[in-house]
Amino acid sequence: MDVPTMIGSQSTAADTTSLVSYFPIPFYGILPVNAFLLRAAQPVLVDTGLRALQESFMNHLRSIIDLKDLRWLWLTHTDADHMGNLLPILAEAPNVRVVTTFLGMGKMALHQLPLDRVYLLNPGQELDVGDRKLVCVKPPSFDAPETTGFVDTKTRVFFSADCFGALMKDPAENATDLAPDDLRKGVATWLAIDAPWLEIADRGQWNLSLHRVRTLEPSVILSSHLPPAAGITETLLKHLAAAGSATPFTGPDQAALEGLMKGSETG
């Protein structure tokens, strides 16, 4: 898989469908890029996928919901792989409001997002979506300061944004389909790339943030960058705890890039 690829939609947890794609990371494999539709009384879309896959993403989204019925778009943060299709969704979903933070709103002002389409929510606050509440959570690891996830109070599913992501060799339907060592290495590598600040973070505070996830007692962890993870919360927390003290990530240099480009040309 050497180009961004849309896999499609799949049921991943109670009341939840994921929109699954993969993005190639040279030298390291592939990274899942997931968006989610939560079928609450007031339906919630979590993130908007890759712009490079706009046509396919929008078609799959339309196949699982009439966008006129969509009420909320929880934007975990403003990275390109999370807000790639924000504008076409806003155009087709007249009743949707974007859940974000004050900083997230400020960043999206660059995209001329109307203020009346925004709903500001901070960690610890709740969003009532009719038949349940979504509790806003700051996940342990993140690469953008506005990042938020949430816990669904009805199903205990934890939507964790980039946290618990993993680089992978091949697509997988569930996180438990990965070989244990591949999961450990994939989580460690992704964490080193996505949260380089861990090198200087206080270990006590880091472990406390992991324990807070444990107290949420999630039934399933849904990460933007990992297949659905049910029944392996302790395993994932163990991997994050170990990765927090791992060697900092240093990416390939220009010579490696030129070698990759030369190989592509000869191939």
Gist of the model:
This protein is of the alpha/beta class.
Describe the structure.
By secondary structure, the chain is of the alpha/beta class. The protein has a single domain (about 5-260), classed as Ribonuclease Z/Hydroxyacylglutathione hydrolase-like (Metallo-beta-lactamase, Chain A, 4-Layer Sandwich). Helices cover about 30% and strands about 25% of the residues. Strands 1-2-3-4-5-6-7 form a 7-stranded mixed β-sheet. β12 (about 220) and β13 form a beta hairpin. The model has no long low-confidence stretch (mean pLDDT about 95).
Task: Report the CATH C-level class.
Answer: Alpha Beta
Helix proportion range? 25-40%
Order of helices and strands: EEEEHEHHEHEEEEEHHEEHH
Q: What's the CATH architecture?
A: 4-Layer Sandwich
Low-confidence spans: pLDDT under 50, at least 5 residues? none
Broad structural category: alpha/beta
For the record, the count of structural domains works out to 1
Broad shape: globular
CATH superfamily: Ribonuclease Z/Hydroxyacylglutathione hydrolase-like
In whole angstroms, the N-to-C terminal distance is: 14 Å
Instruction: Work out the number of β strands.
Output: 13
C-alpha Rg, in Å?
Answer: 18 Å
What structural keywords apply?
Metallo-beta-lactamase, Chain A; 23% strand; alpha/beta; single chain; 8 helices
